[in-house]
Amino acid sequence: MQSVAGALDAPAVRHAPFERESLDGLDIDCWMNIRLYPTLEQVDRPALQDSAVVVIDVLRASTTIVAAIDSGAEKIIPIADVETASRLARPSERDAKLLAGERKGCPIPGFDLCNSPEEFTAEKVRGRTIVFTTTNGTRAIAVAAKARRTIICAMTNVRAVASALAGEREAIVLCCGTEGSVSAEDLLCGGILLASLGDEVASETLTDSARIARIIADRYGPDAETFIRSCDHGRRLIELGFEKDVAFCSRVGVSTSVPIVKGGAIVALV
Ligand code: MLT
Prior knowledge:
Number of domains: 2
Oligomer: single chain
CATH superfamily of the largest domain: ComB-like
Bound molecules: D-malate
Mean pLDDT: 90
CATH architecture of the largest domain: Alpha-Beta Complex
């Protein structure tokens, strides 16, 4: 497949490590095998440990994590449930630690921040640890943390993530979805990621889910915001008053941050 026309201003990433390798005197081509899963529930969990896993939750957990890293947060601790998160950031520790997250898209009582990426300004988060719990995103990150390598991807940093995948042979793109259902904005982002990787992906091995993601990216990548506004989750956030978040989360490739999971926390790849 060719790169998405118009969806990406930047050329597809070229990966030096994918040069031809010699095996017993024979030249063989080394491509990146990528499997894309449209929801967390569908992911092949045993396969995670041998793969680089890219976790995508465009609305809004991945975008918020990228924004927090952009603003200089020291680390983000992804937690699946509200009770555990609250125990990890007690009121007496709030100078160093912030408690952030949402349930059903709304703020959690007693938390410092919700899940709007623009809330995570340098003034609020620089140098701090953020204990973070969201409905789908942090649950998916907890599952993906078993992977050989775990990278957080949003529309905002999709090109930087494509570059960071250089040298990988086995990669899994985990689109989080929403409580077991597909989220089209996650597929759009996954499709743009595949397009950014260009010819390095072994395209003949792409599953139907990956091909659908590519088709969505080809068709809707050039006007991502209009598409994301019309998605189920986009509409729900707009109804809840988070229209600005939808616009923020729709911007393609504006961040160079690559958040990775290291020792149970999310930190910047340096
Ligand atoms: C999630 O993790 O489910 C999302 O980030 C929900 C949201 O939009 O806040």
